[in-house]
Amino acid sequence: MRHYELLLLVNPNQSEQLPDMLTRIQDQVKEAKGQVHRLEDWGRRKLAYAVKKNHKAHYVLLNIESSTDIMESIREGFRYNDLILRMLILTMREAVTISSPMAVIIQEEAKGKRSEAQGSLLKQVKNLRNFDYKDTALLSEFVMENGRIVPCRITSVTALQQRRITSAIKLARFVALMPYCDQHK
Q: In whole angstroms, what is the distance from residue 73 CA to residue 79 CA?
């Protein structure tokens, strides 16, 4: 059994079908003796750029432990589904059960106490080993106004950290959490 992270961008006009789809996924995983470790519904969010002529999407994050065959059947089921605007499936090393940075931001927004960055985020980066594509507040510190990724000679991070930052930014751009360039308003 392998661990997977599945991020779905669901068409907001058809989000009433979402609970049925999620129960189907959970049942399919449980029948194959797998497990759903985390299910986060981020709700409707504005996209950084239009995806299939939609400017909003319903985000859902799942952490699943299952066989490769089950994930391939889930991927094939979503490939031609009009309900799914975009999906991202990542292989994880271990099960992730803690809340994602985006879920924490959503909870803070709901409470009305959105905390701004405490000190410079660039100073905090030197202690980090992994960069999460869902932590857009941190990643936006490494993107210039025109959309280019800031080089490591300016940010003074190591080459390994720069590669991890770059791949996290590219994943965040793929799932429309961050824009590709400054032209996406």
A: 10
